[in-house]
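Thanks for the sequence, V.! I ran tRNA_anti-like right away. Repeating your input here for the record:
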Amino acid sequence: MKKKSVFFSGMVLLVAIIAATAFYMYQKPRTSLADVKADYSVSAKDLYAAFQQDEKKASQQFVEKVVEVTGTVDNVQVSDSTISVLLVGDEMGGVNCSVRKNQDGAETTPAKGATVKVKGRCVGFLMDVNIVDAVIEK
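Predicted structure:
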């Protein structure tokens, strides 16, 4: 009987530790790349073309790197916590930049057709080149 209660107590403790760790990771603030130096500075068209020509080589070069991308805004979608900015690559796709909104609402939404410079972490290619944790450079 004592072995069962020790085992049960251990399992409850293990579940509590896992739940606390998951809650901490979920609530952990995202890092800002505003003060991080970009590994590459490239135009949206050139970045998209690199992934179109040789995805494996471009992935080795750009994925998980901080990239500063300059391009023309094709589309902007605003949600509760993010602004998704699509920069023109070519007629088939572009560079999708996910910009986190500031808590104070100071983040400006770029207009369609405007030229912007966005810095973020490249995570790969899936119809569009995807940039996350992005900030719009002034």
